[in-house]
Amino acid sequence: MLGLYIRRESPIHALAPGAKMLALMLAAVGLIQVTDPRILAIVQAAALGLFALARLPPREVAAQLRPVLLLGLFFFAVHALLVDWGSGLVTVLRFTVLVSLAVLITLTTRVSDMVEALEGGLRPLRRVGVNPAKVGLMISLAIRFVPLLIDLVREIQAAQRSRGLERSVTAVAVPLIVKTLRMASVLTDAIEARGYDPD
Amino acid sequence: MLTTRDMVHIALFAAIMAALGLMPPIPVGFIPVPITAQSMGVMLAGSILGARRGGFAILLFLALVAVGLPLLSGGRGGLGVFFGPTAGFLLSWPVGAFVVGWLTERFRSRLTFARLLIACAVGGIFVVYAIGIVGVSLVAGLPLFQAAAGSMAFIPGDLVKAVVAAFVAHTVNRSYPVIRG
């Protein structure tokens, strides 16, 4: 299962995922205070500079940023019509900067490293009953089963096509869910038969 | 506590959400946000797995998206989707699934299509829009009323999805019930 990660040798790739996440959170908190569009524009330019520093291919970066730019333009237009264009520029710039930084992290951090960071981040929640080992098992099970279920959807769609039902959502969803629930029961037995005990 | 069976159900339903992302999204004219089958998955998670497992399944799906897997409809994913103006809708999904499941569990003694439709509409539409609209208003700096008005373009599509989800949940619950008394 491939993520959005793009492998490169760069200082940004080398940073610890936890440090990158912390920086993003600080940026989010900090940028809420900023109301000057010039400062936000400088931060946006700096974010684009970081993409270059990370040596990411411009085409891939553009593909990732296109949706937020479209949304940004749309919301800027709405804002300019309904409120005023100055504050529209500030709010839209603020979220495009944050999305850019978040995309930078996603493109420069391996899925497995992010999962590890996530599990590490959950550790303090052990006190309130969150078991990081259980979360880890569910993440790896889900990642393992995504391609399998995608194949299952294609298989069901092919079968329903022969009945002329490939456009019917129910004709795909019902067998998909029933088959998955059956799979779940076999899988549970298999895990328990191996004496799995996360506690 | 989550049993092994609960954990497997949660993980596999998170994977079902990803598979639903394969259904081609329908664009909504001038608004750059498509109608997708994944918001139907939110209703299905609650109405088939119940409140707790359904809510966790959607939360797990969002975690997979956040760690960098392109599992949202149209191949979108990564941390970026949680910082845009429509992030409130994504974050509302686990809550919506929980509410759908909670209502389904209340109705479980007589799980009719009509009752499932109520559960899907309340949790999957009302709760999701309530949180999502507040999110749009906060991130995009729009007055609540305007954010709500703009979101109305998606209501007809979501009503259709609630009907389909209730029908699917009704069929699945008759042949393979997971929520038991």
Describe this structure in words.
- The complex is a heterodimer of chains A (199) and B (181).
- Chain A is mainly α.
- Chain A contains 8 helices and no strands.
- The longest helix of chain A is centred in the C-terminal third of the chain and has 30 residues, at 132-161.
- Chain A starts with 10 loop residues before the first helix and ends in a 6-residue tail after the last helix.
- Chain B has 181 residues and is mostly helical.
- Chain B has 7 helices and 2 strands, in the order αββαααααα.
- Chain B has helices spanning 4-20, 38-49, 51-66, 87-106, 113-140, 144-151, 155-175, and strands spanning 26-28, 31-35.
- In chain B, strands 1-2 form a two-stranded antiparallel ribbon.
- Chain B is globular and about 45 Å long.
- The model of chain B has no long low-confidence stretch (mean pLDDT 92).
Concise synopsis of the structure shown:
The complex is a heterodimer of chains A (199) and B (181). Chain A is mainly alpha-helical and 199 residues long.
Radius of gyration of chain B: 16 Å
Alpha plus pi helix count of chain B: 7
Shape of chain A: extended
User: Could you tell me the mean pLDDT of chain B?
Assistant: 92
Weakly predicted, low-confidence segments of chain A: none
Straight-line distance between termini of chain B: 17 Å
